[in-house]
Amino acid sequence: MTEQDSRCGVVAIIGAPNAGKSTLVNQLVGQKVAITSAKAQTTRARMLGIALHGNTQMILIDTPGIFSPRRKLERAMVSAAWEGTQAADAVVLLVDPIKQRRHELEPLVEALSKRPERKILVLNKVDKAKKEPLLELAQELGAKAEFSQVFFVSALTGDGVPEMKDELAGMMPEAAWMYPEDQVSDASERLLAAEITREQLYRQLHEELPYDSAVRPESYTQRADGSVEIRQQIVIGKASQKPIVLGKGGSRIKAIGEAARTELAEILGQKVHLFLHVKVSENWDEDREIYEEIGLDY
Ligand SMILES: Nc1nc2c(ncn2[C@@H]2O[C@H](COP(=O)(O)OP(=O)(O)OP(=O)(O)O)[C@@H](O)[C@H]2O)c(=O)[nH]1
């Protein structure tokens, strides 16, 4: 496609943890690229999805949560999130109208109102939200920052998403595509693989899993027989947490690895050999190397 008849640009999606950013990115791309989980703050790395719409390519930046940073890890997430909006051709402010506390939203909308990028306001989870408070919230936020459009969507069911995608595509500048058509995600496969294991950790350990855990990609090797060998390290903060992750006779980690392997094989379309091991590393969230591996600036 030539530059004359194609469009290409960057869309930054910002919003509170659990607003539904990952779910929305998956809808826009049409394939699972970002990990959804009911637990807040799961998107640590900045995952990139690529959505296509006619002759338009949209590079989606799925930014980590940018609310009330307390620890170093959270502060790094905030700066990554704002950095993400700098090169954007459009900014989507995604709001969960049911759970979002308004006083937390105000500083963000204020910061946004000072930014030059074109913005759209997207109120998510309309499948669950009541209509009246929804309209009220849209009006209230619209008065605080200039949004070129407001959309009411359900990222879960896809309701309202095509209209929103249409509008976003129109906001992209005329330019040649940055990525080949078949490349739906720029997130490296090894990072995606680590995210999938981390999602299984959350799913299978629920409340037992401490927040200060991470999955580090160690190696990703294509084997001659067409399969892929993936090695990952599960990093935890305290030795006392190790038996929780391992389970009785190693049963828990085996189940986590099995579920992650099955999902990965499906996404990658090839046979996967997944090797997990647990490493105890106190204060890992102050460790520069781990930040770089999971895609954040230290
Ligand atoms: N009912 C309903 N639930 C939704 C909708 N969109 C997302 N969710 C749910 O909200 C939760 C959070 O969604 P995510 O997509 O993981 O949210 P996120 O904003 O990426 O969260 P972080 O990774 O913490 O930044 C998940 O349980 C989703 O299934 C929606 O439109 N309707």
TrEMBL record:
Region (G2) spans which residues? 41-45
The organism encoding this protein is Parapontixanthobacter aurantiacus
Binding locations of GTP: 15-22, 62-66, 124-127
Q: What SUPFAM superfamilies does the entry give?
A: P-loop containing nucleoside triphosphate hydrolases (SSF52540), Prokaryotic type KH domain (KH-domain type II) (SSF54814)
The protein's job, in short, is: An essential GTPase that binds both GDP and GTP, with rapid nucleotide exchange. Plays a role in 16S rRNA processing and 30S ribosomal subunit biogenesis and possibly also in cell cycle regulation and energy metabolism.
Q: Quick one: where's region G1?
A: 15-22
Q: Does the keyword Transferase apply?
A: no
Primary site of residence: cytoplasm
This protein is called what?
GTPase Era
Q: What are the recorded GO MF terms, alphabetically?
A: GTP binding; GTPase activity; ribosomal small subunit binding; small ribosomal subunit rRNA binding
